Structure formats: structure tokens, C-alpha cells
Amino acid sequence: MHIAHTLPELRHALRHAQRPAFVPTMGNLHAGHLALVAQARPRGDATVASIFVNRLQFLPHEDFDSYPRTFETDCAKLREAGCDLLFAPRETDLYPEPQTFKVLPDPALADLLEGEFRPGFFTGVATVVMKLFMAVFAGKPQGVAVFGKKDYQQLMVIRHMVRQFALPIEVVAGDIQRASDGLALSSRNAYLSESERAEALQLALALRALSRDALAAAHALPQHLPALEATARQALAARGWQPDYLTVRRRADLLPPQAGDGAGQLVALGAARLGGTRLIDNLEL
User: Which one, of 280, 285, 227, lies nearest residue 115 by Cα?
Assistant: First the structure.
């Protein structure tokens, strides 16, 4: 596996590739990331991953400085997974000057759910992803980018951005990878204490219960859903969590369900803080 730290190094390494398959990450890699690399490999003629902790998507009180950085271990995992090229820029390589030009996603999508609780988050995500896309795919006739479904809203933002800017990139979704007990794999799981790790599964269980109740009430879901969501939040709060949201939305636009929406059209999404760790998860209905 070749490692490039600068844009000229990256572009030189990709000079013969016609269809790179790209997996952007912030590092501290786990089996979920490696599953995305495996999904990318047969889809392109060069498998590329990036590791970059993007300051633009962290709020001032969030964990940018403490976010786990495990570069050597990550490199070993990527080599074993068959990655051809790792792009690992320094902040000054990707942002050599203040990033005053930014990609502003549609507020109708980006300002709800995660965007409500993390204002500006998706602007930071869209800006760095666009910059990474320009780094990896510039001059290429086509490319593939693989993103995990665990960041469900992020995946939708990126898909909308690619479509509206007419980028020659196929965006592929990778399924959520879970531990044997059902906990969604996340780099931030490393923050959890032993007791918190045992408790963390309750978010997935709460979403499963909310999904079951929502499908049972599908005949009049818009009327029943607020009470079902409140019950789900209260149940987690009673266990010591601080829920931001537990909700059921339409897969198409993440807006509240309408009459007639049911299985195959909906997704349950949740975000809640357990101790000092904020976890997210989702379940397609």
C-alpha cells in the first residue's frame, strides 16, 4: 500500500487509474470501515482510502482534539484489507489557507436531526468531501465513493451533493456493521467504559422497539408517532441516557411520515449521549 500525504503525491500515485474506488475516513478504523474497503475493491481499478480528522465538522465543544488517532494501526488494517493507496494529508496540506469557500447543503435536509443538534456539521462534511473528491477524482472519467449507512443523513447529503454538482461519481452505501450483541460499530465506541459498553446496546434496542411500534401503527402513523417517539426517548432517559432524538422518518427525504407510508419507505434514527459519548444508530423499516 502506497501512502500519500500531499496532493501532488496522491495525483502522481493515481495517474494511471481511470476509475478509483474511494473510502473516506477519519481513522481509528474498525471492521465497519474495512467492510467499506472490501466493498470498494471490485468496483474500481485503484482502491483508495483517506484518513483525515476534519476540523470543519466539529463544534467548538466537541472532541476534535481528543478524537482517537491510531495511524500505524490503521495502516496495518488497510494493508491487510487490500487497500492500494492511503491519502493521509496534514491539515496544512488539505487546508493550506483558511477555507472561506464552503459547500452549503440544502437546509431542508441538512438542518434537521443531526443538523439541528450539530449546527454547521454538514457544511463541514460536504466541504471536506468535495475537497477530497477533487483530490482523488480530478481528471478521471468516473469514480466510486463508498459511505456507510450508519451515518444515514450524511450519506443522503453526499448523494444530493454529487447529483446536484453532476459529479461523475457513483455513491455506494455500505450496510451498518454490528458487534455480536448488535451494537453498531463506531470509532467513538472506544470512549465507552466497560459498563457503558454493556449499556450502549440499548440505543439499538430502543430503535428496534420504536420500529416495531411504528409498523404496528402504520394505519395512522402520523397521529401516533409523536407519542411513540416520546415514549422511546423517555425509556432511554430513564436509564441515564441524554437522548437528542429517536424518530421515524421517510427514507426519501427524512421528513416525518405521511399517511400510507410503511415498510420499505421508513427509517428509525436515534442519537443519544451515554456519559460523555454521543452515539448514533438507525434501522431501516
Answer: 280
Q: Which residues are CB-neighbours of 53 under 8 A, at least 6 positions away? A: 26, 27, 64, 67, 69
280 touches 273 (CB < 8 A): no
Give the Cα separation of 72 and 232 in Å (integer): 40
**Residue 17: which H helix or E strand, with range?**
none
Who's near 96: CB < 8 A, 6+ residues apart? Answer: none
Each residue's pLDDT tens digit, 42-58: 999 999 999 999 999 99
pTM of the model: 0.95
> Is 2 in the active site?
no
Helix (H, G, I), strand (E, B) or coil at 216: helix
User: Which member of 5, 33, 219, 224 is catalytic?
Assistant: 33
Q: Give dist(CA 10, CA 41) in Å, integer.
A: 18
189-218: per-residue pLDDT in tens? 999 999 999 999 999 999 999 999 999 998
Q: Which three cell numbers stand for residue 142?
A: 468516473
Q: Give the dihedral sign, CA 50/131/6/139.
A: positive
Phi, psi values for residue 231, rounded to 5°: -60, -40
CB burial string 65-81: b at 16+ within 10 A, e below: eebbeeeeebbebbeeb
Let me know the angle formed at the C-alpha of 19 by 123 and 37, rounded to the nearest 5 degrees: 65
The predicted-structure confidence for 138-161, as pLDDT tens digits, reads as follows 999 999 999 999 999 999 999 999
3-state DSSP helix/strand/coil % of the chain, to nearest 5: 45, 20, 35
Other beta carbons within 10 Å of 92: 9
Taking the CB of residue 140, how many other CB atoms lie within 10 A of it? 17
